[in-house]
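tool=predict chain=A
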Amino acid sequence: MSTLDLPATKPRRRFSLAPMIDLVLLVLIFFMLTARFATDGGVSMTTFGADAPYTGPPRLVEIASGGITLNRRPLPRDAVAGALARLMQSPDDAVLIRPVGDVALQQLVSVLIDLEEAGFSALRVVE
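tool=predict ok
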């Protein structure tokens, strides 16, 4: 009998993940560098100091967890802009806004946006 000359079995090649990981990281870096993130509209804030003295009648809006007051008089949120307009000589007059206690940041921002949409341009947040 003759023996068959079968080819020797080749050892299996191990699959390497290193090139695929390199490619994924390069693609990730590419997308991170070329991405443009959307910017939401913000509330414009200006500083209030010695260069901008406070003039006119008192205009202090206090925001607390229990409600909103204008010059210590409680008001509903939708009535603040109208009551504040009667105290303004011009839309550029300063309006002081003070959060009191544990008021949520969202409540403060909502009032700022309401007043900015009503045309008040000099909103100052104080402690």
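Residues 18-34 form the longest helix (17 residues). The mean pLDDT is 80.
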